[in-house]
Amino acid sequence: MATQDPILTAFSTTAKQVWYWPVIRGLVAILFGIVALVWPEITAVVFIWIVAIFTLVDGLFEIVEGIRRRGTGGTAALVTVGLVSVAVGVVLLVWPGKTAEVLVWIVGLWAVVLGIFQTVASIELRKVPGSGWGWGVFAGLLSLVFGLLVLFNVGAGVVSIVWILAILALVWGVSLVLFGFQIRSLGRKVGQISY
Questions:
Q1: How far apart are CA 92 and CA 148, in angstroms?
Q2: CB neighbour list of residue 136: distance below 8 Å, 6 or more residues apart
Q3: How do residues 100-126 score in pLDDT, each as one tens digit?
Q4: What are the residue ranges of helices labelled H in the chain?
Q5: Alpha carbons 112 and 109: distance in angstroms, whole number
Q6: What is the four-CA torsion angle of 123, 127, 128, 133, rounded to 10 degrees?
Q7: Confidence of residue 40 (pLDDT cuts 50, 70, 90)
Q8: pLDDT digits (tens, 9 = 90+) for 115-154
Q9: Cα angle at 65 between 26 and 193, to 5 degrees?
Q10: Which end of the chain is more exposed for a tag (fewer CB within 10 A), N or C?
Q11: How far apart are CA 79 and CA 35, in angstroms?
Q12: Which sequence ranges are marked TM in the entry (predicted)?
């Protein structure tokens, strides 16, 4: 019997346990995107609270996912992304009265950092056939592009940023949901082959 790649073995043993994390993150992002599209005129303070809660929840999911995926590649990147997201959420909650421009800078920088680390973590999974790493890369690049758009258009105003963020959240959420189901599918295939 041929020896399996240790990365594939480690990934396949945890795939069934972690597939729902990206799905949950994706559904939270989709929900956020819908809320932002329905109420685009929300005040800067409400927007700050929504972004803060979203980044905190997303960061916690990212940390848990990174810890649960240890040994499969990308763990350090996932935990780092999670810690950065939690830190951004805490800053936004502690200083909600800051100007909209500061918020825009924070959101833009967060999206760039998130995009870079999401892309790196997903690229590390390319060694695992059928892992769906392309969806993770797509979500990361989407976040990176959004962050750059925000940083180069800081004066666009909070409502404009809400629209951009809503669209990003919807597309990013769908990508994460697809990525999660791809991981689930791989876990089932490998599980059937192994037994």
A1: 20
A2: 22, 118, 119, 121, 122, 125, 175, 176, 179
A3: 667 778 778 888 888 888 888 778 777
A4: 6-18, 20-38, 44-68, 75-94, 100-123, 133-151, 158-194
A5: 5
A6: 20
A7: confident
A8: 888 888 778 777 766 667 777 788 888 888 888 887 887 6
A9: 95
A10: N
A11: 28
A12: 18-39, 45-64, 76-96, 102-121, 133-152, 158-181
Nearest to 57 by CA among 26, 36, 35: 26
Distances in whole angstroms, Cα of residue 12 to Cα of each of 16, 64, 77, 80: 8, 18, 20, 23
Other CB atoms within 10 Å distance of the CB of residue 155: 8
Q: Once rounded to an integer, what is the mean pLDDT over residues 49-68?
A: 84
Task: Write the single-letter amino acid at 129.
Answer: P
Residue 159 corresponds to which tokens in the numbers above? 């409502």
Comparing CA positions, the residue from 143, 186, 148, 183 lying closest to residue 167 is 143
